[in-house]
Amino acid sequence: MPITAEQNTLRPAEPHPQQERRKQPLGSAVETALRHYFRDMDDHPPENIYELVIREVERPLFEAVMHQTRGNQSKAAKILGINRSTLRKKLEHYGLG
User: Per CATH, the architecture of 48-97 is what?
Assistant: First the structure.
């Protein structure tokens, strides 16, 4: 799936109306997205790429886990391998709590 580098985010160029199971591991998907991102940047050096990737991955991670646990923060924290306090801070940071 083509990736665009609009507004300093990694987004699918053509979103699918239905969610489908990824056929490649998450790490491979991130690597592919980053290769496209760097290619689209041409000769402009990217900045704060770590923060960009974390922001783009972390929010949907928390959304998916909270959905999976039906909002149960104790279960979500256990699935994520973090303590509830950290989870609450992250949820608040992303406006999910």
Answer: Orthogonal Bundle (1.10)
- Here the tokens at position 76 are 């979500």
Query: Where do the domains of the chain lie?
Result: 1-44, 48-97
Contact between residue 5 and residue 36 where contact means Cβ atoms under 8 Å apart: yes
* Mean pLDDT confidence for 40-45: 88
Burial of residue 76, with CB atoms counted within 10 A of its CB: 0-12 exposed, 13-18 middle, 19 or more buried: buried
**Cβ atoms within 10 Å, residue 77:** 19
Beta bridge partners of 84: none
pLDDT tens digit sequence for 58-88: 999 999 999 999 999 999 999 999 999 999 9
Phi, psi of 5 (to 5 degrees): -115, 45
Contact call for residues 88 and 97 (beta carbons, < 8 A)? yes
